[in-house]
Amino acid sequence: MKRSRLLLAPPAWALILVAAWPASAGAQTQARSDLPEGWQPAAPREEIRPTITFLATGGPDGAGAFLIATDDGIGQHGWVQKTFPVTGGKTYRFLAQRKTVNVESPRRSAPARIVWRDERGKLVPADVPAESEQAGRPVPTAEPEHPPEAATDAHGWTTLTGRYRAPSRATQAVVELHLQWAPKAQAYWGLARFEECEPVPPRTVRLAAIHHRPTGKGPRANCEEFAPLIAEAARNGADLVVLGETVHYVGLGKKPHEVAEPIPGPSTEYFSGLAKKHGTHIVVSLYERDGRLVYNVALLIGPDGRIIGKYRKVCLPHSEIEAGVMPGNDYPVFDTKFGKVGMMVCYDGFFPEVARELSRRGAEIIAWPVWGCDPLLAPARANENRVVIVSSTYMDVKAKWMLSAIYDRDGTVLAAADTWGTFVMAEVDLNARRIGPYNLGDFRAMVHRHRPVPPAEAALPAPAPATEKPSGPAQNRP
């Protein structure tokens, strides 16, 4: 049987209120002698403190584990924490294992956090580029880190890990292991490790977007028009080249089912040959025929010429619905040698759920073949998910509509085409962190922790039907 030590709530006079911002503003910590050295429990307020127990032989390796348990109240929130000394500018690796019981959303209710402090226990400023300070922008606080989940073993223990560069003025890192907002739940936390490690190396990728609208001379001719642009982009070192939407259909005056092909098929074989010839990844959209069904798909082809994967467009406009096109229902993300790639197609961009689901599944880059779209939505999708977006459109720049462009993780346009029959390219370090202004910190990690739990659609009330304006006496109105 596992031996446990129950951490009983102390009397009010024994609470230690750390005035210098302990782990969270206003947090109440307890100095305890019966926890492993340096660890102590904490809560925002005594009235919502959960029960915290230490299992001396618990955890995934039997070396001990904390158990945070809540009662049937919905608002309990507590954690255990330990302060580690750090040197500003050095890199540290966090590693912990967690197991939850009766927790609907572990990523939201059982997070780990790392909070940077100075020698006085105060928050420290983030390290920002010199040009940001010179531009008069406010220097943001170094916001807490949120280590992501990795693999879960056969016994239900999930590893959370990450590498972080300590802000220049940090001398302490407060590691917190939480349980919050989950009634009648338990979170088991193995003893966390926080150790100096090697810096995170750059992971640079060169991304290209082609700005070309096929002339419509035929399905194969449309595809061939992209060949010189793909070749030129590859000569310039492009790791990924993104083409437009349904390239074999544009300008033919036909219906989708009349040009739809099986995958693999003639058009995919053609682009697979180009990808292999030039040693680059290609994303292209086509109409796919699968039996009697027709889909609008985006394909990711690898530098060996093989199809890495496909995405079937989920959100369909009226024209495709009326043409009998079938929507997809999944959001696959694919591993490449440079990172994780997701895809969406045209009308998908009008709906935040598509890019959000792709980013939730790990996409670092979203390739977007897009006929045309509201130009405000591309930077919005990039910014709200902190992903890189590469779009290829058929819209003329003079229309001031959608761009063929590469958008950085904050929505900034890194490169945009202004001439037909060209491509643009940008280099992005996927390991470089983007620290947002106004205390947003590394928002990509925070999005995963803070986004709401989607309600079950079936449980939502149906929209109220539209009614005519009542014209009778008030007492006779329903």
Can you describe this structure?
- This protein has two domains: 4-131 and 139-197, Galactose-binding domain-like (Jelly Rolls, Sandwich), CATH 2.60.120; 204-430, Nitrilase/N-carbamoyl-D-aminoacid amidohydrolase, CATH 3.60.110.
- 15% of the residues lie in helices and 32% in strands.
- The strands form five sheets. Strands 1, 5, 6, 8, 10, 11, 13 and 14 form an eight-stranded antiparallel β-sheet that branches. Strands 2-3-4-7-12-9 form a six-stranded antiparallel β-sheet, with no helix packed on it. The protein has a six-stranded mixed β-sheet with strand order 19-18-17-16-15-26.
- The longest helix is centred in the middle third of the chain and has 13 residues, at 266-278.
- Mean pLDDT is 88; it is low at 1-23 and 467-478.
- It contains ten helices and 28 strands.
- It is an alpha+beta fold.
- The protein starts with a strand and ends in a 28-residue tail after the last helix.
